[in-house]
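Structure tokens please, single chain.
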Amino acid sequence: MTASRLDDRRQLLLQESNAIGTTYLRAGLLPQRQRDDIRRLLREYADVRLKGTVANIAETLAQSEQLHRRLWSQAESLVQADMDSELRLLFITSLNEVIDLHQSRKTVALLYRIPGPIWMSVYLLSTLTMVALGYQVGMAGSRWLRGMPVLVAAFSLVIVMIADIDRPGEGNIRVSQQPLADVRQMMSQDAP
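Here you go.
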């Protein structure tokens, strides 16, 4: 369950990075006024997404969603622009995908976590297992006593790893932001 969500977060990051890059490239097909504004906003959006941390998650989400509104306002202005309707549709579709993928990433990272009752069950089962093993070792004698610390450490390590994966951005196991950094670098090479 937790490992699949880690993979989901990786896939969503890659998809969002690709969508941002595609939207940036398609913005090049727009009239100059919108093109320049949209590309500037997309560069700012990528910067906000890259700088986001657990400590400032609320601020990062607020900035991201405000940039979505500004980008969408630019997309709405294209309706009045004298341009090919297929190009307009291509751009708006890719911008919509950026917004949708942001929402998907937010949902998977913040809402799809291991529920409290499952954590309580894991802790309870681990405790009961350790008590039962301790009792068994006590009854069998000291020859099993040397293996107990290893078993306790193994149980603890598994629980810590599950908790680490379940809390994106808080622990040691993190999704690399490199795909988004690569897209941002591509945008920098094209910036005025």
